[in-house]
Design brief:
Layout (H helix, E strand, L loop, with lengths): L6 E3 L4 H10 L3 E4 L5 H6 L7 E4 L9 E4 L2 E5 L4 H6 L1 H6 L1 H7 L5 H6 L2 H7 L5 H8 L3 E6 L2 E6 L4 E3 L2 E2 L6 E8 L6 E7 L9 E9 L5 E9 L9 H7 L6 H11 L12 H27 L2
Parallel strand pairs: 1-3, 2-3
Antiparallel strand pairs: 4-5, 5-10, 6-7, 6-10, 8-9, 11-12, 12-13
Helix pairs in contact: 9-10, 10-11
Bound molecules: flavin-adenine dinucleotide.
Length: 291
């Protein structure tokens, strides 16, 4: 199918984009186009104005500052994947990116586009939730930081206003002694996950769990941080018995059904994937402890 008619704009600065968003009716920002173009072709999205931000160079950057990864909204997924700094300081992001679509889609797809598209099981959204990330939204009215936990207001609907541009993403880095794991189930490699679970974990010197953070996505319209499970793991030995109790609770989290997948199957996947991610993070933690 072909998209409905629209007027194409190609601004070169953030200020120009913000002016356009403030003045043009029914405008949409085009980032990597990997989600928006199919939506326009299917006529799920019918903007009158398409604001292509691919020429706005100031929106594409990647640096580590104040123990956080600072990315421009237009930073390509592939640049994150190929960054040795990201690999060293934020390996959970690296591991998650290997599940995002295909090399071709990651070449174009951006971190900002993925967060704005807000697919419930998007890997980058999952990791942003795990790391308590924030996004920066800018409009003529000013700039504001939105915690990832407040980004979703409904199914594939963000709290970013139509006149706001997402300019940057901040992901606090895991501590150097935290280990990680990402586990997901998708029908085929490169498909969106049905359910995914990410974990970062730190062990005390005596080998017990000092802290565990988890994010589970695909159950509902945005990833969840099961804080009761995170708390219950603290002080436990990182062994299957402790993880079994945690995964039983993961299987009780609220889940939605759709035409393809029942709520019960999503809960089953949450149990299995949480166990796998915890086991792998624990194995890496023990290796680090005894290195
Ligand atoms: C074959 C295929 C497989 C895929 N598999 C996966 C997968 O497994 N996991 C996954 O997470 N994703 C997957 N994707 C989606 C891909 O990751 C997209 O890149 C991503 O969802 C959207 O990023 P984008 O830069 O392409 O944004 P676009 O498609 O350009 O935009 C998406 C939405 O965000 C808005 N937007 C973009 N940038 C901004 C901004 N700076 N400010 C305000 N609004 C903005 C747009 O207006 C639009 O509504 C897949 C895509 C394809 C084609």
């Amino acid at each position: 199918m072909k998209p409905a008619p629209f007027t194409y704009h190609a601004p070169r600065s953030t200020a120009e984009v913000i002016d356009m968003l403030a003045t043009l009716d029914n405008a949409r920002v085009l980032a990597g186009g990997q989600s928006l173009m199919p939506m326009m072709n299917f006529r799920f999205a019918m903007p009158d104005h398409l604001i292509d931000i691919n020429r706005v160079g100031e929106l594409a950057y990647l640096r580590i500052e104040n123990d956080a990864l600072q990315c421009g909204a237009m930073t390509r997924q592939r640049d994150l994947e190929l960054s040795s700094e990201v690999g060293e300081r934020c390996p959970i992001l690296h591991e998650a990116l290997s599940h995002v679509g295909h090399r071709q889609t990651r070449n174009r797809g951006t971190i900002g586009g993925s967060l704005c598209h807000l697919d419930p099981s998007a890997e980058l959204l999952n990791v942003a939730m795990l790391l308590d990330g924030t996004v920066r939204a800018v409009s003529k009215r000013g700039a504001r930081e939105i915690p990832i936990g407040e980004l979703a207001v409904g199914y594939m609907t963000t709290s970013v206003e139509p006149d706001e541009l997402l300019t940057g993403v901040t992901l606090p880095l895991p501590a150097r002694d935290e280990t990680h794991a990402f586990a997901e189930f998708a029908r085929r490699h490169g498909d969106f996950a049905i359910v995914a679970c990410s974990v970062v974990m730190r062990l005390e010197r005596n080998g017990n769990i000092a802290s565990a953070r988890l994010a589970i996505s695909g159950l509902a319209h945005c990833p969840v941080r099961p804080s009761a499970i995170e708390r219950a793991l603290v002080g436990e030995k990182p062994i299957a018995a402790a993880f079994k109790a945690a995964v039983a609770d993961a299987g009780k989290l609220e889940a939605v059904a759709d035409a393809y997948v029942s709520a019960e199957y999503r809960q089953h996947l949450a149990r299995v994937l949480t166990f796998r991610a915890l086991e792998r993070a624990a194995m890496r933690a023990e290796e680090t402890l005894h290195a």
